[in-house]
Amino acid sequence: MTKSSAYLGHLDEKTGRAQLLRDHLTGVADLAGRFAAAFGEEEMGRLLGLYHDVGKYSREFQAYIRAGEEEKKKRRGSVDHSTAGAQEIAKLRQGAAAPLAFCIAGHHAGIPNRGERADPEGSATLLGRLKRKGLPDYRAYRTENDAPAAVPSALYAQVAAEAFPAMLYTRMLFSCLVDADFLDTEDFMSAGNVEREGFASLDTLLERLQESLEEKFSKPKTEKEKQKLQLPINEKRSALLAQSIAAGKEAKGNLYRLTIPTGGGKTISSLAFALHYAAHAKRKRKRIIYVIPYTSIIEQNAAVFRELLGEENVVEHHQHVDYDDAQDTDMNRKRLATENWDAPVIVTTNVQFFESLFSNRPSKCRKLHNLAESIVIFDEAQMIPLDYLRPSLAAIEALVRHYACTAVLCTATQPPLGQFFPADLQPIEICPALMENADFFRRTTIRLREEAMTEERLAAELAAQERVLCIVNVKKTAQRIFDLLGEQEGTYHLSTNLYPVHREQVLEEIRERLKDGKPCRVISTSLVEAGVDLDFPSVYREINGLDSIVQAAGRCNREGRRSAEESVVHVFSLEKLARNAQLSAEITKNVARSFAEDLASPEAIHRYFEELYDLSGKNRLDKKGVLGQSGKFAFADIADDVRLIEDRTKPIFIPQSEEGQALLARLERGERSRALMRKVGRYIVTAYTGYDEAPFDRLAAQGKIRMLDENLAVLVDMSAYDAQRGLLHNVGEGEGMFL
Q1: How far is residue 504 CA from its own chain's centroid?
Q2: 717 and 704 in contact (C-beta within 8 Å)?
Q3: Which among 64, 306, 460, 687 has the fewest CB atoms less than 10 Å away?
Q4: How far is CA 347 from the centre of its chain?
């Protein structure tokens, strides 16, 4: 193999087409350099591309790539080609050599832990791999690879002094490399037939937004629409929208807060701010990313964005969205955009966003470089998980400081997160008249009851009302209160004991009854508190955090048809409080002693979060010690530790309806595609496992479920699923069963 043309990077076995290794390296270098240029590191990106696959120059790898399919299966993983590039880049000992070595070593299996200097050469850590001897001879790369020596990195010089920013810098470069590697390989294997382009620019989307808003607010089609626009509440919404647009045009900072009470038009105002900011910022912004805690809110907000901006320009990235229609060009383009977030508007979850920021896996990290030069809006910012609050905010700070990222903390119940940011990076309030806005949108009266109630008394009060919503902390309580209400007309139970499709059907029935003025009593867990458009004249909320209580109040007198005095949110305590709610409930009671007259005021909410953060302590706000582990550059360990949802459950598929039965048939045949599993997820109820009398384990022992594979069960005894209560044997197990 003396000719350069002999070295192959990829081989398409179906057609016999080959990609030269040199072409692959330069192709990846060009892409990775372009991606890294967004944060001033073009040369670092190019360097990664040119070095990442130099191990493929060995005779052993060239023999492997030319082997038949069966032989490849036998030898897969037997030729280590990623360690070679890491060792070569480490030899340069200049600039950002260490981050580059991490990236190349992990570009297939994930960024490794740094390890210790004493780690032996057989270790999986970076320091162990840099000692590895006996690698196949790859020196031929020097005959055709124009990789330069490492160049100084201005950004790395800024972040290298602290481990946490240095780790994010590494992940951002890693993202550039792995996305470039994926894309160059995809382009070759598809012969250039994969279409990823075609989204509108943010400038075009701003024009569409302006047209949509003008149509919506300035051109009423009927006298009734005109009168509706002139209502004080709609005039106030328009004023807040105008403030948001003005703040976007000023574009004078990179960290903002948007505090708009429930019903104030927060969704449209945040979008208008972001698009105007993108148009007026000195440095170009490429996309808007919405980060939202619940899929119910995502689906609601995404529908608003699609209406304003066009169906084809909004990409949702969460477990319930399905873009796997290969025949539909727009759907396929969106599916591809979920891989690397290369679209103008991305709507995703807290879990997807923050777990990706702390991941070490190529598929998870691939999207990170597209956070640079983006506007990231954290809707319901108070829902950033408490256990990971400090590292999450540290990541936001680093994105804002070093990657031309603009962050917006958006909520009706704004927590005092400024205390976690340095003095030179304090959030700018987009709509600063907090008290005035809170007073205007006040539609309820929150009453905190002093004495604990029995469940029987609570049920009696609910039964005496025509239309009422009661939200409790845990599923077993919802089950018991529902049972106590008996067979009264229009009584409903909502919890995650009902699979998602079933819940949607129940919610639609509830909305219809409320619209028609029929009796409607709903006993629910907190899943209706955000992103669910319900309007009850009266709401009962079991005591919990003040933010949850204010969210629950948003389901009372939502349209403002009644006075605040007659629209009461009853905050009650039962005789036994779930352990998970005890701290937040106690703080709510403390705050109520000073703000009994207005528990929903900005001052009360501020006080609540101050006490919550103070009493939680630093250990709770960084439960897994992510900031401490960063000093060890423990990429793999941190990725394993950061789980925003601690899952001790297993999924049970409920094969109801014709669609459910059809999905079961596909599962029984062994099909497990990503598109199928998203559809299956719409029929899933999870049950706790792993302790005495855990519901999943008990259902299995009773023969009511059957395992389809090691990760998924199916309900085979449909008597265990009730039309009103859902999965019966998933009720009443463990105090942690919120939602």
Answers
A1: 21
A2: yes
A3: 460
A4: 8
Greatest Cα-to-Cα distance within the chain, rounded to the nearest angstrom:
89
Report the alpha-carbon distance of residue 585 to residue 573 in Å, rounded.
9
pLDDT of 294 reads: 83
Backbone angles phi, psi at 411, to 5 degrees: -170, 160
What tokens were used for 715? 């309900």
pLDDT < 70 stretches in the chain: 1-5, 77-78, 93, 95, 147-150, 324-327, 618, 729-739
What is the residue whose two structure tokens read 């740094």? 114
pLDDT of the residue at 229: 83
CA distance 546 to 607: 10
Distance CA 229, CA 222 (A): 11
DSSP 8-class letter at 106: T
CA distance 581 to 191: 56
**Residue 622 is encoded by which pair of tokens?**
């960084």
d(CA 12, CA 189): 6
Closest CA to 688 of 455, 387, 474: 474
pLDDT at 737 (0 to 100): 39
* pLDDT at res. 89: 92
Q: Which DSSP symbol is given to 426?
A: P
Contact (CB, 8 A) for 372 and 348: no
**Which H/E stretch holds residue 252?**
none
Coil/strand/helix, residue 404: coil
